[in-house]
Known about the structure:
By secondary structure, the chain is α+β, with helices and mostly antiparallel strands. It has helices at residues 9-23, 35-59, 71-84, 136-146, 174-195; strands at 88-94, 99-104, 110-116, 120-129, 154-158, 161-169. The protein has a 6-stranded antiparallel beta sheet with strand order 1-2-3-4-6-5. Strand 2 and strand 3 (110-116) form a beta hairpin. The mean pLDDT is 81.
Amino acid sequence: MAAGKHLSPGAQRQKALRERMGKLGMTIPRIYMTADEQAMVRTFLHHCRGERTEQLIEGMDFSHMHAKWTVPTLFDALKADTARQDVLAGIRLHGVPLGIELGLTRYGGQLVRLSVSDEEIFVTTVLCGRSAVKQPARFNEACLRLGPTLPLSNVGLVGDDYVLFGQLSAHSPLANIVEELDVLGRNAVESLEALSALMR
């Protein structure tokens, strides 16, 4: 980058995301496309994701953004929300740096971890370990093909675990965060069903 060049807010967020993913052992490929290619990708994603994704986005509350969350304030809010609805369970503080771990009651107690940065809330859940995969090359290809069909989630590899992950703004309303957790749980169940033939 040339000296003195100013990064836009969007470019700064992308740079920060690449750095965080690198620390987790993930690599984000850079793909350069023409305007026509970008239009084709948008059409493809809209077709694959369908009405459900549009409904989720429409249902999210972008007009009442919250003051920036921290791990302690988000932990307290999720604990309070659990008392009102039976969606999350076993919420606890976990790890170093400090994050939040919880189970999704609608999806068999699927474990999810949340971390909070200055700009984003990062949510992740383990799909399976490498040792559970029969044919890694075919499994990796299946994950890549599966990715665009998963609303609000991505597939990645962290250490020896295949994970599903997503991000939200650190200012997101609590309802949006709970919705993202629900989507992640549903996507995890559907992903494991789709990939089960390639697992031991």
